[in-house]
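Entry for the shared binder. Reason: the reviewer on the internal report wants the predicted structure included alongside the sequence.
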Amino acid sequence: MSDTTYLTAEGAEKLKEELAYLKGPKREELAKRLRTAIEQGDLSENADYSSAKEDQAFVEGRILEIENMLANVKIIDNLEREHGVVNIGSIVTIQEGSYEPEEYMIVGSEEADPFDGKISFRSPIGSALYLKHEGDCVTADTPNGQIKFKIISIR
């Protein structure tokens, strides 16, 4: 998998911290759990051993996933963006009908958190906004149906 991962500098730093934790303290904890389970004897019926092996597989998979993301990362804070056009890293203010305006940062999928105002450029709303201009009226096909809104501002 060699897809580009779009992250803010903060998001990349969080992934690096998670990777360091998984490679250090988490691996050590799992090694201790495995040693303790092995010392208990018969591994075929040892639930602690099975659980530790499952956790170890998950951690190793997550390590590979993070390493792949960081190997293919583009920091969106550094991307050049055309003024007035929604792109990855843009902060967009939109308004649906007479509702209060809402502000979102357009980010990569790995960093999306709608409750924190970060939406993926691949999400229904993010993809509807992507490459649109200030003042455009946009329709997004969401799981709850179509929503129409206007782009108030782009930073």
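Summary line for the report: Strands lie at 5-7, 73-75, 91-95, 102-107, 118-120, 137-142, 145-154.
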